[in-house]
Amino acid sequence: MRRGSRSAGPRLQRVDGGIHLHGDWTLAALRPRLMVLRHQLGTHRQNAVWDLSQVSRLDAFGALLLWRTWGGSYPETLIMPPALANSFERISHAPIVEEPRPARLERLLTRIGKGALNIVDNLRGMVELIGHIVDEVCRLPWHPREIPLRETSAAFYKDVVCALPIAALLGFLIGIVLSYLSALQLQNFGAETFLINILGLGVIRELGPVLVSILVAGRSGSAITAQIGVMRVTEEIDALAAMGVSRYQRLILPKVLGLTLGMPLLVAWTSAAAMIGGSFSAWMQLNIDLVSFFERLPAVVPIANIGIGLVKGAVFGLAIALLACHFGMRIKPNTESLSSHTTTSVVASITVVILLDAIFAVLTRTIGVAR
Amino acid sequence: MKAATLPVELVDVHTRFGKQVVHDGISLGIHAGELLALIGGSGEGKTTLIRHIAGLSKPDRGEVRLFGQPFAAGTYNERRLRRQRFGMLFQHGALFSALNVFDNVAFPLREVGGLHADEIHTLVMSRLALVELDPQQAWLMPSQLSGGMVKRVALARALALEPELLLLDEPTAGLDPERAAGFVKLVRNLHDSLGLTVVFVTHDVDTLLALSSRVAVLADHRILACETVEEIMCLTHPFIDNFFHAYHRRDEPMTPWAR
Q: What is the interface pTM, i.e. ipTM, of the complex?
């Protein structure tokens, strides 16, 4: 029965009542035949004669596999070279320590409590952040040298100028789609000329600012959060503080200023692109030529709407920048925290922008709408 | 037994970053069971060399052989099995920050597949005991660990699959002398009990003296010498003089500074 050749793979043989193990009993060697060997081991009794003298190598996993077969103690008759005993020693003394887990109700309550405290903590952090920024802004006029002009300019370039192409494309396409769909409906009532009213009001007052905000929240908001977060993880922010440089002044204020000042411009640009897209579509669909489209536009859309759109843009930009910085400062030094806070930052920004938009709609309901 | 194959063999390795030459023809054989230290000035490419060995980067010319075979040889599965035969300890630990200590050590075991959860549990706990960590610390996150503990957990992870070869990049950097000495002792014990081959990069003389059985000196983009520490200390070369200078001076009695 005994095969003469000696292969490195683990083998198990029953030889007149005894069990002989051969070859390498290591994880790498066991892995390909693990199912079969588990089954073979399972059929053998602990009180058989176990002969390990032919085992060439034994690692912790091999030892563990045998140890579990034996039910957690050495079998009565075991032939084993002393060199292998080390592996058994190591795994037989490994403690079983379960992860401490509180009871289910306790877990639930802790979760609710933590969630509530987290909201309070976030609100407090936000108030603190705004306080620091206001403090900086009030101090800077007396120290004009410290106004972070370069940083603001850099933030403006990165968050606004670089977003111009994608914003234009977005606006143009939305303008075309909106104009096309509206035109189809308006044709049914013979009210084609009202297309200009719908597009003008809808885009300049509502869609333009909200669309740009969503774009900027996804594009710049996430970048700001991740950047500040990584700077926290790598202790760069602490390095700034150690040099006596205020992070609010150098890091946060430029981003807040850049977005607050830049967003209205981005809104104007996107709305313009949407109007151009809309006018093209109107020309194709309803045969309203471009000149009369843009001649009628100021007549049917009161100028106040542009003001509302731009103010919205500034407020939304401010909100996005504040939230992005706020969540960035809360990132803890691990990858999980970085990803979850970046997600939270974008989701919170978009939610807040839409909430603010609703508030604007209520406050400005009598302004710039022809009745 | 076949004729002993070297765990690591570097044959005429050339590396350059852009125009900067890092390795200019390095050949080195590392024998099974030895503790080989790589020393050299900064920018001499010690870490790059250990990354070559681990297959994380490739030399521009020359060959790195692991267990007698070039790195790219064999099928996907063979390459993976070869990779499981060595463990690497990164300079800053490189623990997965989103996983706790237990899951970090369990990660390579779970990758193998086919192991039961309680088997993994026992194996992880035995690895943690091996690096002298308390079982209660298994549930901590990497951000809650001190520098010395991070190194121990990283070592436990590198040892999870019981590799034959252990690569250590600056094992004692960032540890205070006492912890460094403890860590060196730990690696020595593991070397003795598991029969490991250890290759490590260091610039700490204490670590070098306490751990190495042979020292390879990287200087002028080549292996200057590969001997025991005593023999290396007899050589005269500006780098070697400098390296051991501080150590020699420390043995002299301290003279009080100007009174």
A: 0.73
